[in-house]
Amino acid sequence: MVPYAPQRRTGLSEGQGVYRQGKHYGKRNKRFKGAGALRKERQEAIALDLLMMNSLEAVAEKHSISKSALYNLRKNPDFKAICADQKRQIFGESAAKLQGYSLEAVEILISVMRSPTALDQIKVNAARIMLENGRTAYEREEILPKLEELEKQMNAIERK
Q: Each residue of 35-85: pLDDT tens digit?
């Protein structure tokens, strides 16, 4: 910073930012300069919104970027890795939640299966669904850490 350079304040209202040394700082700085300009934290937020929101347009609007910049970002290998990490995290949390409720669901299934008024097909369907979901969640929980360990080992071998 040049010590004698004038600092100027524009007619912006409180909290909208100030100009210093010809650069704008604050809330009004929403210009996007390309996929490379995004910090990792912002890319993670965009990746999460891509998973949660209905349309690319909504994600682009929320993050004040153009649709073409979002399309280009989705092609970026680093961003693809961030998206994959976000997906793993979401599915891991949902699997943990499913496992947390599995005991209660088993108790409900047992009561349905023992109920003399429940139809046999309802009993079978409920039991099958719970067993399949429990098995899938268990396999995902067991396989993903092993796969990540293998990837780390492969990366270590490639570096050598």
A: 455 788 899 999 999 989 989 999 999 999 999 999 999 999 999 999 999
- pTM score of the predicted model: 0.48
What domain count does the chain have? 3
Q: Do 153 and 85 reside in the same domain of the chain?
A: yes
Residues 103 and 135 in one domain: yes
Torsion angle in degrees (nearest 10) through CA of 96, 93, 84, 154 = -40
Q: What is the pLDDT of residues 95-118, one digit of tens each?
A: 888 888 878 877 887 788 788 898
Q: Which residue has the tokens 């939640």?
A: 97
CB within 8 Å of 81: residues ≥ 6 apart: none
Task: State the residue range of the domain holding 1.
Answer: 1-30
Both tokens of 111, joined, read 């009561």
Contact 24, 17 (CB under 8 A): yes
CA distance 121 to 109: 13
Report CA-CA distances (Å) from 45 to 55, 71, 105.
15, 15, 33
User: How many CB atoms are located within 10 Å of the residue 37 CB?
Assistant: 11
- The amino acid that residue 22 corresponds to is G
